[in-house]
Every structure is written in structure tokens, then in C-alpha cells.
């Protein structure tokens, strides 16, 4: 069976205030053309179809058009909700849409009910594990703890139990939206850390032939059988080095996986430039970035006058300006942002406790309280998004 693995469309998202709807429409054109050209048997979308729980109408219309076109091609599509999606909204009409070959899996309780497709070698069972917010689904799976590993382990136990009741020749594919250990994140993914832990081990998914992951935006292989397709477009400058692709997966009669990366169209290349303003606007070697979207990090000791206006004269698609003056690390003028770079909310809060207590660091009980407070706020935000 030939499978096209995609994820993280983020329909409705912009790039530094530049609308991407036209680029997303071009990607979906490419997706449908790829399905035809490569004679794909099933399309997988591993979550984050939309960029937010209540997407703009233009994004909904684009999604609706994509569904009609995929159904018209006659190739089944299996799709799960991600942490950016409203599972309830995305899943509306799933039963009716399923009759057209578009299989939406947004209810955690249904994760062990697969979409079963057949090829010349028999059945392939596709299990959809939508994004599982631990605090919200812990009771559904009777998990011992409210953590990503605990709920995914419980969900996979149900999957394996269902698979065990099927013929031995049945091959299996799992779609999941999660941060799996070994994956390389970028700046454009929303944090899903729980209890100080975001990543789950790949071994959680043992026992199936292929795992189609979503959430991380870089195309990558955790193992030969566990892969991220990544987002089809770049959504932050941290993705400037990414090659945006989809996975074309061939699953043979024995469940052996053969994978090929297929490139996605690039609306405009990204470039991250660093240096003093005069150097950036005068260096002839930077001519190749004339048509790129630009993030410029200025290292001038003193902030120059009208820096963005000068950059735009040289680079008409400059979008982001960062100031990191060349100063010694102990310089009192070093910016607060520089001192906090790379530190998460928990670390910043613990540093604050130590600061106000004259260097006495938070103890384990206090760190637990802080961690619980951050998780409570994040879960409350997630509940509000779901119920909006």
C-alpha cells in the first residue's frame, strides 16, 4: 500500500503578518497532484489542520475545498486533530464525511477503532490518535498519571488489543500528534510540556508497522518506522534550513517500510542574516537573498537610526529585526531578553525566587508548586480553546 504522510497544515496561519493562504492553497494543489502522479492509496494528515481552534472563514473554505478534491480523487484520507485544532469542531459531521472516504478521527475514545483499507495483500488498519491533552483524557484511558507518556501508552494498549483480535496478516499504521523523544523541534510549535516533560519515548508505539507523526515542523525520522512529515510551509525563521517535504511510504505485504521524501512548493525562501547594519546593506555576497524573507539580527553596539527602512531598501521582503549588540556577557547593558534566552517559564520563575531571597534557590516542594501552577494555566487555556 502506498501512503502519503502529511501533517501540520496550519490553515489560516500567517508568517510575520504576511498572509499564507495563497501559499497554503498552492500546497494543497500540489498535494492533490502528488496523489494522482504517484498513485497514492491513502493520504494521512497527522494533526494541526488549522492554526487555531476557531479558524478564519477563508481557512475553513480552503479546507472544505481540499476535502472535496481529495474525495473526488477517490483516495481515502485519514485525518486527526492536533493541539492547535478544536477536536469538536473538526470532527463535526465525521460520520457523514466518512462515507466520502474522508475519515476524521478527533475523539480520543475512538482511537482503537481503525479505518480498515484493503490492497492486494490484505487489510491495513489505520488507527487515529488525536492530540491527547493529558489532564483532559486521563480518565478516558484510566491512566495512572496525567502525563503524555501515560495517556499515549494507555491509548496504544487499546490499539494493540484491537490489532491482536485481527488476522495475523493485518498490517497497521498509527497517526499521532505528539512530541516523541529524538525529534528536533523548532520555534513555531506550541509548547505541550506537562510535568516538566514534553517528549515521550518512541517505544510507546511498538507493535505497529508505521507511525505517522505530527506536531514537529521539521521532516525527520525518529526510527525507520516512526517519522514526522513536518509542516508543508515554514512558519518561523527557525525553519530556514528545513527542506519542506511529505513522506511517500510504501508498505509491502510483510509490513516492511520504504520511504521517499517528496518536496513541497516553496513560496519564498527564508534567510537569517547577522551583522552590523552597514555590513548587511553593503555586502555584495548577500545579493542572493534579495527576494527572500529576511530576519536580520543587528549587532551594532548602538542601535542605528531607521534600521528597518534601510534594510527594506536592500531587502524588500525583510520581515523581522532582532537587536543583539556586540557586548561582553557581563556588560550591565546586556538586554533582559538575552539573559533569558533559552530558559523556559519554570526556570525563569525559579530564578526569580532565588533573586528575591538573596540567592536561596527554590526547594523541591516549591518547584513542584510552580510547575503545577504553570500546568494549571496551560490546561485552563486549552479547555477554553476547546469550548470556544
From TrEMBL:
Domain of life: Bacteria
Subunit structure: Heterodimer of SbcC and SbcD.
Organism: Streptomyces atratus
Purpose: SbcCD cleaves DNA hairpin structures. These structures can inhibit DNA replication and are intermediates in certain DNA recombination reactions. The complex acts as a 3'->5' double strand exonuclease that can open hairpins. It also has a 5' single-strand endonuclease activity.
GO MF annotations, alphabetized: 3'-5' exonuclease activity; endonuclease activity
Gene Ontology biological-process annotations: DNA recombination; DNA replication
The organism's taxonomic lineage, starting at the top: Bacteria, Bacillati, Actinomycetota, Actinomycetes, Kitasatosporales
Name of the molecule in the record: Nuclease SbcCD subunit D
Pfam families: Metallophos (PF00149), SbcD_C (PF12320)
Gene that produces this protein: sbcD
Domain Nuclease SbcCD subunit D C-terminal: 267-355
Gene3D superfamilies: 3.60.21.10
Amino acid at each position: 500500500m502506498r501512503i502519503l504522510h502529511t501533517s501540520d497544515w496550519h490553515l489560516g496561519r500567517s508568517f510575520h503578518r504576511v498572509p499564507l493562504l495563497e501559499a497554503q492553497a498552492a500546497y494543497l494543489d500540489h498535494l492533490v497532484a502528488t496523489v494522482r502522479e504517484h498513485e497514492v492509496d491513502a493520504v494521512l494528515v497527522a494533526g494541526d489542520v488549522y492554526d487555531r481552534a476557531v479558524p478564519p472563514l477563508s481557512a475553513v473554505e480552503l479546507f472544505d475545498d481540499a476535502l472535496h478534491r481529495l474525495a473526488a480523487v477517490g483516495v481515502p484520507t485519514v485525518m486527526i486533530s492536533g493541539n492547535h485544532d478544536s477536536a469538536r469542531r473538526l470532527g463535526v459531521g465525521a460520520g457523514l464525511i466518512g462515507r466520502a472516504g474522508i475519515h476524521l478521527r478527533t475523539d480520543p475514545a475512538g482511537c482503537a477503532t481503525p479505518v480498515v483499507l484493503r490492497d492486494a495483500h490484505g487489510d491495513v488498519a489505520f488507527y487515529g490518535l488525536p492530540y491527547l491533552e493529558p489532564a483532559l483524557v486521563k480518565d478516558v484511558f484510566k491512566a495512572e498519571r496525567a502525563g503524555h507518556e501515560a495517556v499515549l501508552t494507555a491509548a496504544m494498549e487499546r490499539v494493540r488489543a484491537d490489532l491482536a483480535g485481527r488476522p495475523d496478516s493485518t498490517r497497521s499504521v498509527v497517526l499521532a500528534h505528539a512530541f516523541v523523544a529524538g525529534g528536533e523541534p523548532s520555534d513555531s510549535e506550541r509548547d505541550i510540556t506537562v510535568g516538566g516533560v514534553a517528549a515521550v519515548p518512541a517505544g510507546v508505539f511498538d507493535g505497529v508497522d508505521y507511525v505517522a507523526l505530527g506536531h514537529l515542523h521539521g521532516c525527520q525520522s525518529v526510527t525507520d518506522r516512526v517519522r514526522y512529515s513536518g509542516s508543508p510551509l515554514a512558519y518561523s525563521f527557525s525553519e530556514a534550513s528545513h527542506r519542506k517535504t511529505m513522506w511517500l511510504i510504501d508498505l509491502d505485504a510483510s509490513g516492511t517500510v520504504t520511504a521517499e521524501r517528496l518536496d513541497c512548493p516553496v513560496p519564498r525562501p527564508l534567510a537569517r542574516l547577522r551583522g552590523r547594519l552597514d555590513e548587511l546593506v553593503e555586502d555584495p555576497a548577500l545579493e542572493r537573498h534579495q527576494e527572500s524573507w529576511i530576519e536580520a539580527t543587528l549587532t551594532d553596539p548602538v542601535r542605528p537610526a531607521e534600521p528597518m527602512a534601510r534594510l527594506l531598501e536592500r531587502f524588500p521582503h525583510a520581515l523581522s529585526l532582532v537587536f543583539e549588540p556586540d557586548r561582553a556577557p557581563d556588560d550591565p547593558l546586556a538586554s533582559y531578553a538575552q539573559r533569558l534566552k533559552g530558559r523556559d517559564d519554570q526556570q525563569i520563575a525559579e530564578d526569580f525566587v532565588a533573586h528575591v531571597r538573596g540567592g536561596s534557590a527554590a526547594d523541591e516542594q516549591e518547584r513542584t508548586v510552580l510547575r503545577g501552577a504553570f500546568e494549571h494555566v496551560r490546561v485552563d487555556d486549552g479547555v477554553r480553546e476547546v469550548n470556544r
